[in-house]
Amino acid sequence: MQTILTKPLESDIFEIPIILRGKLIHDYSDTFGGRNGAKFITPSARKYVNQIALSDPSKMKDLYDLSIEEIILFLRDLGQRLVLHENEHLQAAYKLACEASGLTPEVLNTTYRTLPMLFLPSNVREMLEKRKIRKYLESWVPTTMEDGRTISIRAFGSRTVHIIAGNVPTVSAASLIRGCSTRCDTIFKLPSNDPLTATALVQTMIDMEPNHPLTKHTSVLYWRGGDTEFEERFYHPDNIDKIIAWGGFNSIKHISQYLQAGLDLITFDPKISISIIGNEAFQNFQTLQLAAQRAAIDVGSFNQEACLNSRIMYVQSGTSDEGIQRLNSFGKMLYSALVNLPSHVSTSPKIFDKTLKDDIDGIRLEEDFYRVYGGKNNEGAVIVSQFDEPVDFSHRLCSRVVNLVPIDNVDTAIQSVNSYTQTVGIFPESLKLQLRNTLPLYGVQRVVSLGFAATASLATPQDAIEPVRRMCKWITDEKSVT
Q1: What is the DSSP letter of 191?
Q2: Distance between CA 28 and CA 16 in Å, rounded?
């Protein structure tokens, strides 16, 4: 293995190179502050702006010398090298993530150790085949039209820029797999809360085969979002075809200003996830305990850093005095399940938002309106509304804090969702089947059984789109009737 790609300097500033198509650039000049206090230094993106993009799309021809099966096997070999205790690049990424990420070391360690699984051939094949795209990537697929014409369709890779999120390291791996398997020219913009994972993955590709077409069509760099001097020159259809952006409202709004004919934007924008728990949960103690354990997993996985984590739970306990008493009991049970989750799944948050802490402490004395279980030691908390509305600050819930809201009818929960609602975990299964044709009409993008929000797969749609298909250009060859 080559020399480790990054190391902390004497002042604990990490060096992060630019990777351009298999080559590392080390002329460090720009210092940035990552989130949570981490600092890193990187070459200037402005200096290399004219070298980053693939201005000549015909250079992607070498990707088409590879069969899809060869790409799958390359990803398999890459995954086998992504063993944390054996891969120095991932070890460096993990070390920096422990400083920059909102996740704790225990949860990060679990996440890095599961990366190889994403690259298994069975998972990549499932993604391509379940989404009905593999045959279009492999060849022209003919279709006979009603008028007798034959139309052949093929999916071609695009010149893409991935503005990735850093809340969970798997985002980098998922984006790399999607880019390679669709024969895209892929450029990663690193996030400040995970500025090294994508670099470590691509460095491992260089260790494997520096001249492999997939390696030569993958680049990684960091620039501060909003650097208009760089972005006005870079975000142009002469350079790229598609921007795949994970980000907050302001970030997506900023990127949108560069859109023009020939430049497509695919967004994974901010989402809030909730849960709906039916009255069947209260039929006996065992059922209620099961619901609490599953609910705890949906709140605590990834320490509630992911969009898929539940933040508000609408519970059909009823809003009568007896119903509120049932919900308070469930709140205690949920709090106990949450703080007792295994450390590889969830831990006390690394950083507890101060404003949220003040908000929670501010409602503790308002027992006619709210009951708060936990939160005094920044370990997470369950806020139980004593009426059928969430707390005013429900949009800012994080750090393993969830709000339980009593409802008499599930229609109240349905009316609460909108286009910003990503995942809805539902209990029991019969209620999920009842609601799955209604919730999407209000904007919900994913319904799952309670307790399984964190079991997302590359083989499913994401945020109500099919990103693997969207990343491609769908070309038709039309043969007229003679």
Answers
A1: P
A2: 8
**pTM, full prediction:** 0.93
DSSP H helices, 101-169, are 105-113, 115-118, 121-130, 134-138
Whether residue 76 has pLDDT greater than 90: yes
Based on the structure, what is the number of domains in the chain?
2
Question: Residue 283's domain is classified under what CATH number?
Answer: 3.40.309.10
Nearest Cα to 337, choosing from 371, 300, 311? 300
Specify the amino acid at residue 276.
Answer: I
Supply angle C-alpha 432, 438, 442, rounded to 5: 120
Is the pLDDT at 225 greater than 90? The verdict is no
Which of 91-105, 196-210, 326-340 shows the lowest mean pLDDT across its residues? 91-105
Residues 55 and 202 occupy one common structural domain: yes
289/454 Cα distance (integer angstroms) = 20
Range of the domain at 160: 13-269+473-478
Query: What tokens appear for 439 in the block?
Result: 């919730």
Question: How many other CB atoms are there within 10 angstroms of residue 291's CB atom?
Answer: 26
State the residue for tokens 């069975």: 122
pLDDT tens, position by position, 141-175: 999 999 889 999 999 999 999 999 999 999 999 99
Alpha-carbon distance values, 449 to 109, 405, 431 (Å)? 26, 19, 10
The tokens describing 149, both together, are 């014409």
Q: Which amino acid is present at 177?
A: I
Are 380 and 339 in contact by the 8 Å Cβ rule? The answer is yes
Same domain? For 204 and 263 the reply is yes
